[in-house]
Amino acid sequence: MNTIGSSGSLVTPDVWDGREMREALASRNISDIYKLLRKHGVSQRQIAAATGQSQSEVSEILKGRQVIAYDVLARIADGLGVPRGYMGLAYDGATAVRVADSDDGDSPAEEDETVKRRKFLSHAAAVAMGASVLGAEEGDWLTANAQTPAPSRIGMADVQQIQAATKALRDLDYRYGGGTCRDAVVAQLHWAKQLLHASCTDQVKQQLFTSLADMHSLAGWTSFDMGLMDPARSHFGQALQFARQAGDDSLVANVLYRMGRVYLHYHQPNEALKLFQLGQIAAQESGSSLTVAVMCANEGWAYGMLNRPDQVAKMLGRTKDEFARARLDEAPDWVRFFNETDLHAAIGSVHDAMAEHEPDRYAPLAVAETIKSNEKYDVDMQRSHVFVLGMQATNHIRAGDVQQGIRVGRRALDIGAQVKSARVPDRLLPLEREAAKHVRNAEAREFSEQVRVFRENRSI
Predict the structure, then answer these.
(1) In the 8-state DSSP scheme, what is residue 288?
(2) Where does the record place the HTH cro/C1-type domain (predicted)?
């Protein structure tokens, strides 16, 4: 049987239209897709070569291993030559631009990650320092305008619809992870940006810029949560531009904070620190103590990863002082998450970072702060709860209380199974490693393996 279609696909196009295959594609059941390909004579080696996976990964998937990460699903669809729409995968604007330009050697998608980080930092610095954002030099993150005709005139009610949609989608992200709402955020953005072409008062226009900045920030955050780095950077870049047009320094700071968190997640504390420091400029200009507290806490986290205890102590002191002055009831939606529960989580994160360098000193401090946070988390913040439970469990084990670490860690796995986030398996890696160090403890070895299996089943 000829297993190479005319378009370069592993199979002829009619294979993708079979009933079983379409059902497997629609449900994103990669295991069944691969099994059906095997029935059509496609080898594991061919599947691996087409999708960029190892043969061992393909073998694990054939045995039932799940694939949930959006970017991996998209890579599999593209590698196999199946239309993304069959799997319910859609390009957002930035991704579509990159795909359209994929034959161009100068395409942004082909740039080294270091170059991309440098470009974004340069753009962030220009925006944060008040440079023009509508001139001739537009960032690589700019997407094409929506094609649907815009309303001829809009009022504040139209803007409030965007704000309500953003709030509802943000609540979903907090509770269940970016995988539950990212596509909806991107779709809402395509609609909302049409309003830029409508006539309105200056006051409405300013609020529109703010609302679009906030929605782009949420699109960036949910993209990051699903492991989609380039779309995340694209949305954050546009969020910065709209926030600066709106003259909203607090929102500029918040966008820079979120992009900094991306770099913290990928263990790039120096790049994260630069963005947090730029954000601190905007936060100070905003006059919002809560925004300043967020920036200080995250600067402390970056310094913790860099093993700078002097700066950590300074930043944590400032965080507590600014938080004590803050009025949560007056804070905008995008920073209101930083309540007392999240304050303890942030301080715990800083101590957790330091505990990697000095476990005897900082692991007990991390445990104390994360316990305070985990006692107050509710179902509306399940993803954060998973992260902080993982930190608490890890530091129990670092501090020598292995049994308690395992008990708390199992709670993290139970809740983590309900959250669609590519970050969950990444954030549980330290827990797996700490448990694995106790080679003479059978329960610890078993638990480490349990975490490993959980992470693998959710990380591809």
Answers:
(1) -
(2) 33-87
Please report whether residue 450 resides in a domain.
Answer: yes
Q: Is the pLDDT of residue 29 over 70?
A: yes
Which token pair is 309?
A: 């205890």
Task: Look at the chain and report how many structural domains it folds into.
Answer: 2
Q: How far apart are CA 245 and CA 228, in angstroms?
A: 26
Instruction: Dump pLDDT digits (tens) for 293-346.
Output: 999 999 999 999 999 999 999 999 999 999 999 988 878 778 888 999 999 999
Retrieve residue 110's tokens.
């082909």
Q: Which of 87, 107, 140 is the C-terminal boundary of a domain?
A: 87
What's the chain's length in residues? 460
Angle at 277 between CA 275 and CA 282, to 5 degrees: 95
Q: What is the pLDDT of residue 134?
A: 40
Q: Give residues with Cβ within 8 angstroms of 417, minimum separation 6.
A: 454
pLDDT at residue 13, rounded to an integer: 65
Name the band, by pLDDT with cuts 50, 70 and 90, for residue 287.
confident
- Asked whether residue 44 is domain-assigned, the answer is yes
Instruction: Give the domain-ending residue among 57, 87, 117.
Output: 87
Structural domain that includes position 50? 13-87
Q: Which residues contact 228 (CB under 8 A, 6 or more apart)?
A: 70, 71, 95, 182
Cβ burial, residue 111 (10 Å; 0-12/13-18/19+): middle
